[in-house]
Amino acid sequence: MKTVHRLFRIADDTATMVSQSPSWYRLLVDTDMSASCTGALRIYIADAKTAIEALGIQPRRPHRYPFDLIALEHVAKVVSIAESCLILLEAQKVGEAYGLSRSAVEAAFSLRHITMDRDDMHSKCMKFGGYSQHVKNFWLYYTRQMHPGVPDSADVAAEVKEWALTGDPKPEREQWIDTWRTALRTHPLDQPIPAGSAVTSELIKKANYATDYSQPSQYVHCSQIAMDWFVPEDGTPFRFSMPKPTVEHAPESVSSILLEYLHWVIAYALWGQRIDFPASLKEAFEKAFTDINGQPVPLGLGPRSDARKVCSLGSEVLHRNGRIPAMLT
Predict the structure, then answer these.
(1) How many other CB atoms sit within 10 Å of the CB of residue 300?
(2) CA 171, 181, 115 angle in degrees (round to 5)?
(3) Phi/psi at 214 (nearest 5 deg)?
(4) pLDDT tens-digit profile of 150-209?
(5) How many CB atoms lie within 10 A of CB 7?
(6) At CA 65, angle to CA 60 and CA 67, rounded to 5?
(7) Residue 47 pLDDT more than 80?
(8) Quick check: 286 and 297 in contact, CB under 8 A?
(9) How far apart are CA 264 and CA 277, in angstroms?
(10) CB neighbours (10 Å) of residue 80?
(11) What is the pTM of this model?
């Protein structure tokens, strides 16, 4: 196995190196490229869809329980992102899949931020939804500026009515979330770092942010890092050719990002709705992780299994139509 880790040396006992965030372990070792990686991800996606649908979750009134909608739409979106990345990987568009994988990380950050504090979830949900209105107002303002004195078209007028738009572009410049702070703050689902760990919780979180969010972002924004795949040969006529991928961005790395952050998105979504995480899905994650990384899940990786005991508010158990086990009100 080739070592691509650049931030800290591998400890003699890797079992002591644990994480509060999804994917630090991929920094340490990079397995040989194999189609089994994408196959393992595909199986996990299918298992996840089956497990979530089996819960029979019925979203409640959105004005009172907005997180129900936000949680489930995030799960559906990240599943779609992962399936799209598989198509790109099969077409040997690894760099494009790598850039798109960042959206899965961002979705996980959004749910992490919203579910950080149960008492503040409703207001954060409103802020998440409100930001879309700010973006629409920004669009409306400049659409009208391009056509001064011209009444809104029927399509624009429909958008204005549906979103209750004012045309004020200023709030759009204010981001609703600070991803860096969200990544570093402690979440109830984070695994504890045992005494004697070779690395600190803060270093693990910063390393995850660097490798899973900041680096793929360069492929979203088309910086020189992403362009390195396409640097033409000097002194020869330019020809279009397949990109030249590097080991850090090989299909197994993309598969790892998608696997781990989809798993976290599901964990945040269910925890925020006070639904027990399916044991079968935890087992499916562990198998997929082993198939992709060539080693079992290290101690501490993934959401803590006792989070419900630690963080439950002690509300009365509610069974929705007898279909959902142990959901709290």
Answers:
(1) 21
(2) 85
(3) -65, -45
(4) 999 999 999 999 989 999 988 767 789 999 999 999 999 998 877 777 788 888 899 999
(5) 14
(6) 105
(7) yes
(8) yes
(9) 11
(10) 13
(11) 0.81
Could you give the CA distance from residue 236 to residue 253 in angstroms, rounded to a whole number?
32
Q: What is the pLDDT of residues 309-327, one digit of tens each?
A: 443 332 222 222 322 222 2
Q: How far is CA 124 from the centre of its chain?
A: 18
Distances (CA, A) of 58 to 299, 319, 326: 34, 11, 14
Neighbours of 199 (CB within 10 A): 17
Q: What is the rounded CA–CA span in Å between residue 39 and residue 43?
A: 6
**Alpha-carbon span 75 to 236, nearest angstrom:** 47
Distance in angstroms (rounded) separating the CA atoms of residues 293 and 32: 9
Look at residues 201, 223, 10, 277 and name the one whose alpha carbon lies nearest to residue 102. 223
Residue holding tokens 């702070």?
Answer: 181
CA distances from 53 to 6, 46, 57, 58, 60 (A): 40, 11, 7, 10, 16
Q: Which helix (H) or strand (E) holds 43?
A: helix 35-54
H-helix or E-strand spanning residue 318: strand 317-318
User: In this structure, which amino acid lies at residue 179?
Assistant: T
Cα distance between residue 320 and residue 23, in whole Å: 35
Distance CA 250, CA 4 (A): 12
- 8 Å CB contact between 49 and 262: no
Q: What is the dihedral of CA 31, 112, 186, 121, to 10 degrees?
A: -170
Q: Which residue is associated with the tokens 């269910």?
A: 270
Helices 279-293 and 35-54, interaxial angle, to 10°?
170
